[in-house]
Amino acid sequence: MLLKKLYSFTAAVLVGLTLVAPASAAEKVTLLNVSYDPTRELYQAFNKSFADYWYKKTGTAVEVNQSHGGSGKQGRAVIDGLQADVVTLALAYDIDAIAQKTNLLPKNWQTRLSNNSTPYTSTIVFLVRKGNPKGIKDWNDLIKPGVVVITPNPKTSGGARWNYLAAWGYALKHGNNDEAKAKEFLSALFKNVPVLDTGARGSTTTFVERKIGDVLLAWENEAYLVVNQLGKGEYEIVTPSLSILAEPPVALVDRNVDRHGTRQVAQAYLEYLYTEEGQEIAAQNYYRPRLESVAKKHEAQFAKLEFITIDGDFGGWQKAQQKHFADKGTFDEIYQVNQ
Amino acid sequence: MSVRTEPRSIRILIITVAVAFFALFLVLPLVCVFQNAFSKGLTFYVKTLQHPDALAAMRMTVITALVAVPLNLVFGVAASWLIAKFDFKGKDILLSLIDLPLSVSPVISGLVFILLFGAQGLLGEWLGDRNIQIVFAPPGIILATIFVTFPMVARELIPVMKAQGNEEEEAALTLGASGWRTFWLVTIPNIRWGILYGIILCNARAMGEFGAVSVVSGHIRGLTNTLPLHVEILYNEYQFAAAFAAASVLALLAIVTLVAKTAVEGMMRREH
Amino acid sequence: MSRRFVEPSILPGFSLTFGFTVFYLSLIVLIPLSMLFFKTASLSPREFWEILTATRTLAAYRLSFGTAFASAGINAVFGVIIAWALVRYSFPGKRIIDALVDFPLALPTAVAGIALTELYAPNGSVGRYLALAGIKGAFTPLGITIALTFVGLPFVVRTVEPVLEELDPQLEEAAASLGASRWYTIKKVIFPVIAPAVLTGFTLAFARAVGEYGSVIFIAGNMPMKTEIAPLLIMTKLEQYDYAGATTIAIGMLLISFFFLAAANFFQWQLSRKYGKV
Lengths: 339, 272, 278
Description:
The structure holds 3 protein chains of 3 kinds.
Chain A: H1 2-20, E1 28-36, H2 40-58, E2 61-69, H3 71-79, E3 86-88, H4 92-101, E4 120-129, E5 149-150, H5 158-173, H6 179-191, H7 200-208, E6 215-219, H8 220-230, E7 235-238, E8 242-246, E9 250-252, H9 254-260, H10 263-272, H11 276-284, E10 288-289, H12 292-297, E11 306-308, H13 310-314, H14 317-325, H15 330-337
Helix pairs in contact in A: 2-11, 3-4, 5-6, 6-15
Chain B: H1 8-37, H2 42-50, H3 52-85, H4 91-103, H5 106-117, H6 124-129, H7 138-149, H8 152-164, H9 167-174, H10 179-208, H11 211-217, H12 227-236, H13 240-271
Helix pairs in contact in B: 1-13, 2-13, 3-7, 3-8, 3-10, 3-12, 5-7, 5-11, 7-10, 7-11, 8-10, 9-10, 10-13, 12-13
Chain C: H1 14-40, H2 45-52, H3 55-88, H4 94-100, H5 103-106, H6 109-120, H7 127-132, H8 141-166, H9 169-177, H10 182-211, H11 216-220, H12 230-239, H13 243-274
Helix pairs in contact in C: 1-13, 3-8, 3-10, 6-8, 8-10, 9-10, 10-13, 12-13
């Protein structure tokens, strides 16, 4: 009796919460942007700018909620029902996965916005301690004995996959495209890695807070964030001779925006990323802008280097993932060898 | 000197070992949390906690505990009565099943609810058609918390009830008291410490749970974050002091609950 | 031995509590957990077995269960000592210690992991001294054991404490008046009474430690084959959208844990029967 009452009471509470969740105020539009870890600062600034822009244009207030986490984890959450209006992830592979496993967005999503749906790019650089005591200049310095390298785990981190592929590209180029040699190179590199954090932010913490390692392989924007905000004067950025052009894509989640009635504002949100204002915010947050005029303005900020690309050099994410990061891929082989 | 104690030297040794172990594993981390929390001063600390996202996270945490703890309390009392008072077939198995959620990795505890209620899950389509959001919304967080804290009260009560034996209840029943009356007037007073411990453990775990909730939350700032998740978010934004400030609230919360427990104990003792 | 399902008792409420317990257990635990098996059903038995016995999986299992066992053992010993000191002695700071025992439960595991890593990392306030002694704290199995000891600490203390408190003083007094030495009394009178509780606490600490993720992930170092715990392997599989692989490893963990729990419960039953307390 009493038990039953208590139970039905709590059941009622549960149901009540369920019903409350989707309800939203009429005069205000809410968007959910599901993104990866290092874009927090970028979208904090961008959302504010977009809200102003949208209010001026239409008179409706728009609030953009943010969800951040590892790129793969976030992609999975959207597949499993996280109500994202837009996704802004680290790799096209993760948005591909959404398109493949659900009908939330069409498979050709990447062609719907210009530049492969990547409004900004980044690359992988080295972050070293002040004065660069180990004299690290390029990828081949990372495999020297005694150099301690910090990178997250490519199996759990999108950023780490860019790291891995950039190193692979360098090894191929300097080893006459010999894959066995590239594997050896990566194996030697990962011998110098003492800790594999699960995400890019975890690695940065290991390097900055725990003071472990001589060099951190990081997103360029993360490296700048560390140099300019976390530890002023304590770190230096080293740009290798060659790196990978990291293209973090954005996409509209069609089924979700239609369900929420937010297609128009969500589309405008993504397009605003390509405008001068959007590009300026990206550049200020150390993402390489696509727009020529903004790129010119921030030219001094971004070092020039040779880029390899995921589509040009690795045949796209599907192939790269299968070959390197799936079970029994080259990354797993390295750790069987290192045993 | 009573016969119920040991020589002074042994007493001191035991106390020293207990305190040393305690200091190494509990006090140091606690000090670490508070030291970091206040590393940027009191104003910063207060400001961090007054942030709307922090307040929203606290609200979510409290709601979660308010639903999870009473449910698991009722279950705990029922289950421990069943286990302690009766002998029946399959009791060992039932007992092990009750413990099961404790040994399920938090990652899995979250995952199973995604597999059940997620868009790709067994009930996903049905729920989707009705626009009911369970995972990545408060109900999912609550369910995962209930799952994780499921055995906490039962596990506290079973040994206590067992140690109590059946004699008192049997006497009451023989003297003509009804089952409910016996339960309220004989059993409950006997197990009240166990109940209190259970509630405290359950509540603390419910408020502090991270792994399982992290899987089902969706991490939407200000909407589906609990306090522990808020801590992680801040930490990942390199706001270390702010992260520890939020963490210290959970630590404080634990300490306050425990102080309350001591006070209640004192009151009950005076009653007798 | 009766062949009946339930031994007759004059106590009421068997059907009510049995019904409710089973109902609630099914709703909250069994049905959701059955999803794991449901998901793995997409694999052939061979694929299932291959994932389960891959060297990497086995190494992770060994690490997870080994460190969990070690930490639960440490907690069993020190937990009894702490509980004993708290119940039997009075000393300055006792109330504070008693209040703080539950701290690991209240502290979000991620925070615990961060705090412990900060302490035990080579540049941390404890790790520094460990490093001097040539011991690596964080990023080794030792670090994992430390984190697991932290998360499991309250269990033994909190299960043993009430039993010690409820212990009938007359038992000890009787033993003493019959000429038993203090040590003999502890061994033969007190220990049997608290043994089931110690075992319960050990099991709880062990079970909690096996699946622990949040606190371990920071301090473990996550090196494949060396410091990669089983829950991380599950996360890795999920990251590849490999739900079947993830649930397979989860089922493996679950079965081993369940076996341990069942064994502990059985053993405990034997204990309480042997000493015939009830």
